[in-house]
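Exercise 7. Given the encoded structure of a 305-residue chain, write a plausible sequence.
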């Protein structure tokens, strides 16, 4: 028997802060000049890179590893300053540090065709984990798969998801909400037994735990860029319902998260709303819709409600 969706007492895993130093004022004191790029990373070079890395460097590497892709603008906003115009020195420090990390091959910039943000026009480099970063993460037991040459649709969607995560960390740093935990793909995927014992998996883009005083809200997040047909969206929604009815999430955590559909504009919000109205009435309350640019403020408002 499934249990109702509800809030529970907030507790960060292992007592750790969920923010990866979002908005941190920490600036590396080492010389931010990148060595000449190399197509090979010897054991000696890898040792020297690891020796020279600071805590902030590791935080950036781990963030890009979890996100798969991030623009330089997103990384600067998350780790150096969320307002480059008011704090240009910190923004420049972030740019120099990213150049150094790329020179060390901790990060790799995608080819020029992949430049720009989710909507393009920003001229920002898009970073993935580089060959040295992959090797150092492997030394810590993290298997980082190289992306190869991702397509434009994958890049756009992945950067949109990264943007949501950055926005949540910035809101956490500003005190607008308490971000307890965020999981990205594939860590946020959930396997369960469906009808007749069939093995199924629900695959949200993100999972977030947002603190509400002594309580918390839990959310599965679907980042939608208006590229999928209504039938695909309806199938996704029905899979969440099957997951809810399986009771697997509730048996582990006592509650079931709500599902937030994040959309680029009002027109798509109407389309998602029309799709959700085709679901059984008792399950519609599982789902909500908000705009891509308003995720953090929307979740903060829900937390205070």
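Solution.
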């Amino acid at each position: 028997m499934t249990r109702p969706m509800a809030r529970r007492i907030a507790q960060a895993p292992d007592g750790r802060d969920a923010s990866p130093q979002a908005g941190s004022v920490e600036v590396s004191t080492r010389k931010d000049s990148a060595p000449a790029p190399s197509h090979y990373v010897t054991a000696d070079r890898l040792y020297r890179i690891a020796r020279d890395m600071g805590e902030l460097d590791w935080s950036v590497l781990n963030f890009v590893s979890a996100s798969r892709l991030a623009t330089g603008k997103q990384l600067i906003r998350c780790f150096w300053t969320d307002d480059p115009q008011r704090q240009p020195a910190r923004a420049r420090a972030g740019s120099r540090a990213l150049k150094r990390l790329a020179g060390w091959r901790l990060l790799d910039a995608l080819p020029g065709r992949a430049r720009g943000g989710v909507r393009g026009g920003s001229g920002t480099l898009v970073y993935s984990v580089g060959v040295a970063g992959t090797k150092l993460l492997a030394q810590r037991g993290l298997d980082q798969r190289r992306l190869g040459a991702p397509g434009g649709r994958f890049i756009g969607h992945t950067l949109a998801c990264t943007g949501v995560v950055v926005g949540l960390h910035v809101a956490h740093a500003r005190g607008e909400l308490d971000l307890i935990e965020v999981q990205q793909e594939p860590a946020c995927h959930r396997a369960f037994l469906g009808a007749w014992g069939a093995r199924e998996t629900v695959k949200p883009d993100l999972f977030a735990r947002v603190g509400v005083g002594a309580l918390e809200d839990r959310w599965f997040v679907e980042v939608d860029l208006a590229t999928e047909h209504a039938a695909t969206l309806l199938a996704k929604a029905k899979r969440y319902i099957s997951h809810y009815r399986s009771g697997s999430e509730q048996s582990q955590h006592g509650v079931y998260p709500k599902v937030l559909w994040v959309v680029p504009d009002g027109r798509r919000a109407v389309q998602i709303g029309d799709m959700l109205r085709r679901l059984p009435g008792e399950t519609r309350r599982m789902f909500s819709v908000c705009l891509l640019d308003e995720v953090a403020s929307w979740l903060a408002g829900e937390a205070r409600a």
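Remark. Residues 19-158 form a domain with the Arc Repressor Mutant, subunit A fold (CATH 1.10.10). Students should compare their own answers with the one above.
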